[in-house]
Amino acid sequence: MSSLTADFQLSPETAMGDLMDALPGARRALFARYHIGGCQSCAFSDTETLAQLCERNENLPVDEVIAHLESAHEQDQKVLIEPAEVAALLKGDSPPALVDLRTREEFEAVTLPGAKMYGQELNQEIFGTWDKETVIVMYDHTGDRCLDAAAYLIGHGFKNTRAMRGGIDAWSQEVDPTVARYRIEFE
Predict the structure, then answer these.
(1) Separation in Å, CA 73 to CA 6, 12, 26, 61
(2) For a surface tag, which of 8, 69, 131, 157 has the fewest beta carbons within 10 Å of its beta carbon?
(3) 143 and 163 in contact (C-beta within 8 Å)?
(4) What's the rounded Cα separation, in Å, for the pair 153 and 123?
(5) DSSP character string of 51-110
(6) The pLDDT of residue 187 is above 70
(7) How many CB atoms lie under 10 A from the CB of residue 178?
(8) Which domains can be identified in the chain, with CATH numbers?
């Protein structure tokens, strides 16, 4: 049995839904190494255990998969940045580029000053004109998607890309309570 945090124990009997909740980058890690969980043909259910998943995927060694998930989680933790740290960077001489991953409606309702809404146009701008040394901070509503987006940019050479832990919701609670909090019905 393995332990990642005091609150979460990763073991062969861990349900995949619990794993996905506890380790936001686990799906990306499983897909990158084992081609599991990225499409309908290799999907898994929330109630399936890690051992069951490994068994039906060519009897993958569970201990190896756990070690890979732990290593990937450790790397993901290095990409996360705390909202207070982002606030301090924004006050500095070279503020980071803020990239908002939320929907247009969310962006128009509430956003952080200077943030750009991510979309195809901004993606083309980033890849076409931004220096690869640019410090980029990506955020979403609650921090559940920005880690994957940051990993995407890092994988394309933007090594100074970070994902804001907890998204704009954490920013509202921990940095600036004047930024309105909201809830999306389908979350």
Answers:
(1) 15, 17, 7, 18
(2) 131
(3) yes
(4) 10
(5) HHHHHHTTT--HHHHHHHHHHHHHHHHHHEE-HHHHHHHHTSSSPPEEEE-S-HHHHHHS
(6) no
(7) 7
(8) 2-76 (1.10.3910), 82-174 (3.40.250.10)
What are 7-19's pLDDT values in tens digits? Answer: 788 999 999 999 9
Neighbours of 147 (CB within 10 A): 23
Separation between Cα atoms, residue 133 and residue 168, nearest integer Å = 24
* Sign of the C-alpha dihedral computed for residues 183, 184, 186 and 187 taken in this order: negative
* Per-residue pLDDT reduced to its tens digit, 20-67: 989 989 999 999 999 998 888 889 999 999 999 999 999 999 999 999
Closest CA to 163 of 72, 92, 100: 100
The first and second tokens of residue 16, run together, are: 């995949």
Tell me how far apart the alpha carbons of residues 94 and 142 are, in angstroms, rounded to a whole number.
Answer: 26
Q: Give yes or no for a contact between 170 and 87, defined as CB atoms under 8 angstroms apart.
A: no
Residue 179 tokens, joined: 């930024």
SS3 label, residue 174: helix
Mean pLDDT value across residues 94-113: 95
Q: Quick check: 14 and 50 in contact, CB under 8 A?
A: yes
- Reading phi first (left if > 0) and then psi (alpha if -120 to 50, else beta), residue 185 is in alpha
